[in-house]
């Protein structure tokens, strides 16, 4: 998935519940299901222009929320930080001895768990 689509999908995950049902449905079908405006219009019983308006409003509302809260930006920073810890912890777990190796392995498992939540 290209970076733009990934960002759009993540915006929907983080802020989708703040949209109207129609906005959320149109945006999801367009971004996650890759349906055209015509396909969405036919499926939902709304004009192509109505679908486009819903998608545009949804994107605008979610980007505005992200600008105000920064939740998605912080999520991505934390995830990158955890990912950057993974390789050194695994290396330490393999090369360390005794308690050091055990702690590194436990920390690596915790990082794995956090990344896969």
Distance between the termini: 20 Å
The low-pLDDT segments are: none
Strand count, sense and barrel status of the largest sheet are: none
Structural class: mainly alpha
CATH class of the largest domain: Mainly Alpha
Going by CATH, the architecture of the largest domain would be Orthogonal Bundle
What overall form do the CA principal axes indicate? elongated
> What is the radius of gyration?
20 Å
The whole-number mean of residue pLDDT values reads: 93
How many β-strands, per DSSP? Answer: 0
Number of helices: 6
**SS strand fraction:** under 5%
CATH topology of the largest domain: Arc Repressor Mutant, subunit A
Helix content: over 70%
Explain what this protein looks like in three dimensions.
It is a single chain. This protein is mainly α. The protein has 2 domains: 3-69, Orthogonal Bundle (Arc Repressor Mutant, subunit A), CATH 1.10.10; 75-115, no CATH class. It has 6 helices and no strands. It has helices spanning 3-15, 21-31, 37-44, 48-69, 71-95, 98-115. α2 (21-31) packs across α4 (48-69), α3 (37-44) packs across α4 (48-69) and α5 packs antiparallel against α6.
Q: Helices, strands, pairings?
A:
Blueprint: H1 3-15, H2 21-31, H3 37-44, H4 48-69, H5 71-95, H6 98-115
Helix pairs in contact: 1-2, 1-4, 2-4, 3-4, 5-6
């Amino acid at each position: 998935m290209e970076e733009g689509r990934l960002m759009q999908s993540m915006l929907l995950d983080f802020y989708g519940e703040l949209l109207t049902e129609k906005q959320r449905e149109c945006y999801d079908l367009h971004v996650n299901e890759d349906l055209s405006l015509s396909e969405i219009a036919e499926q939902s019983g709304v004009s192509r222009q109505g679908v486009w308006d819903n998608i545009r409003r949804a994107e605008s509302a979610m980007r505005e929320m992200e600008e105000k809260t920064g939740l998605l930006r912080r999520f991505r920073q934390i995830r990158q930080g955890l990912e950057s810890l993974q390789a050194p912890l695994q290396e330490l777990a393999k090369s360390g001895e005794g308690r050091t190796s055990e702690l590194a392995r436990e920390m690596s498992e915790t990082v794995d768990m956090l990344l896969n939540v």
